[in-house]
Amino acid sequence: MQYLGEIISIGVAFSWTATALLSEMGSKRMGNVTLNFTRMAIALIFSAILFWIVTGSPLPAKASTEAYLWMMLSGLVGYVIGDFCLFQCYIIIGSKFGQLFMTLAPITAAIMAWITLGQQLRATAIIAMAVTLTGIAITVLGRGGDNHRLSLKLPLNGVLFAIGAAVCQGVGLVLSKIGMNHYEASLAVPCDEWILPFYANVFRCIAGIIGFALLLMFHEGFGSLRKNITDRTSMTVATLTTIFGPFVGVGCSLLAVQYTSAGIASTLMALTPIIIILPAWWLFKQPITLKSVIGACISVAGVSLFFLL
Known about the structure:
Largest sheet: 2 strands, antiparallel
Shape: globular
Number of helices: 14
Distance between the termini: 26 Å
Number of strands: 2
Strand content: under 5%
Helix content: over 70%
Radius of gyration: 19 Å
Strand order of the largest sheet: 1-2
């Protein structure tokens, strides 16, 4: 099919939309930390099954200790801190606004890559940052009170969690890239390129399990975990969240760039803040306003500038 890559990319955007909606639902039902710990455990089980089917062994390919440490650092930043902030913002401001703020992740990744990897920060990237920030500002700011000054229309703690999630995702992405470079370079036996991110992600999940286990110990307690793993609805939501995120989403995103350019694929996959508007209204009764639609479209346009220019 001529547009197979584009079709897959749009499918990924819908997959990530489902992940965001399910994560909001699961966080409110199970609790932030319990859901994240359960997701990490399910992801490891799915990874072992995938490796066993593809390679005959449930374990990832061996690499250097340095590679493991980089990937676990990426998991600490991206999963433990980042997903904790993301799921907490879902509870406070909802997945629709949470996904809007996640358009800041490419900005963070670009700045982090400029600092750590020496990648050039082009003028178009700065323009893209300004466009993305403008779209977010249009959505979350408004005039209020007698003085008609601009004010934030969302709870401040929810916004701070959302920004923290976007920053951690961007930083975690760069750390993951560094880790995968070390992983690939230290492999004793070369592996298929498509499975390398799944190998590396195992160590991110291990860091996630350790981090969320500590948070469970000091934050929610293991009673919540015991209660939810015996609840069929909770486990269904957690399993679907894991499938649509790390497996269908990540796997299809890797497949999409094999059939179309990375710029087009990345832009289409960034449509989640627009796609999520209607189902968020249907599921959670989050109002749809012209300003929120315009703001989401402008933010997505800003993201597309990163990849197309």
